[in-house]
Amino acid sequence: FLIIVEPFQLNIKPGEMFSKEANIRLGDSVFVSAYRDRMRRGLGINNSGQVVRHKPLKRSTARNRRGRALPLVQTGKMVRSFRVNRNRTTDQKIVLDFPSREMIKASIHQFGRRRKGIPARPHVGVSQRDLREAVRVIESEWADQLDDFMQIKNQ
Q1: CA 109, CA 12: separation in Å to the nearest integer?
Q2: How many CA within 13 A on the CB side of residue 36?
Q3: Higher pLDDT pick, 61 / 26
Q4: How far apart, in Å, do the first and last CA atoms of the chain sit?
Q5: How many whole angstroms separate alpha carbon 23 and alpha carbon 92?
Q6: Which residues contact 14 (CB under 8 A, 6 or more apart)?
Q7: Residue 26: other Cβ atoms inside 10 A
Q8: HSE-up (13 A, CA, CB side) for residue 121
Q9: Distance CA 134, CA 87 (A)
Q10: Distance between CA atoms of residues 54 and 154, nearest Å
Q11: Mean of the pLDDT values across residues 8-26?
């Protein structure tokens, strides 16, 4: 599965987003880093875009991890693999996903697997805070571009 961030989610008009390269930087600096930070703190995203604490591990699972009792973070490989998909991101959208080798594991954790006793622990999503931070970054970028333009114009 993947996440697509489009202009309407950031309250900007289509065509006002940046270049593909700028959207990749925005995706990395805001959405990917927020995801990794939440995961390190045992937090996820519910369907309403709110940050929530993950369901705790079973006692036996926590005991087997020898002190590393955060759900979804055993080796950190899945967390590190979440990324901006550079091939599918454009100047109109930011696409976030996992490489195929981690997609199945991420999906199982997102939706759970009742037969195996794995509860759903939604971890992939964009929070309202993430969207506000993206807007702040965009506004700052626009202000910097405007300053650069004014300096060139006044020379």
Answers
A1: 32
A2: 19
A3: 26
A4: 50
A5: 8
A6: 7, 8, 92
A7: 23
A8: 21
A9: 21
A10: 54
A11: 71
User: Tokens representing 116?
Assistant: 């195996």
Report residue 54 as tokens. Answer: 């993950």
Six-digit token pair at 88? 């599918």
Six token digits for residue 9: 């989610």
Q: Which two tokens stand for residue 132?
A: 């506000």
- Residues 93-106 have a mean pLDDT of 86
Closest Cα to residue 84, out of 126, 54, 48, 51?
126
**Can you read off the two tokens belonging to residue 12?**
């900007």
Largest CA distance in the chain: 69
Nearest alpha-carbon partner for 29 in 84, 79, 81: 84
Q: What is the pLDDT of residues 125-143, one digit of tens each?
A: 888 888 888 888 877 776 6
As beta bridge partners, residue 96 has: 3, 84
Q: CB count, 10 Å around CB of 28?
A: 15
Q: What does the mean pLDDT of the chain come to?
A: 79
Q: How far is residue 30's CA from residue 84's CA, in Å, rounded to a whole number?
A: 11
- Beta-carbon contacts of residue 43 (< 8 Å; ≥ 6 apart): 51, 52, 53, 54
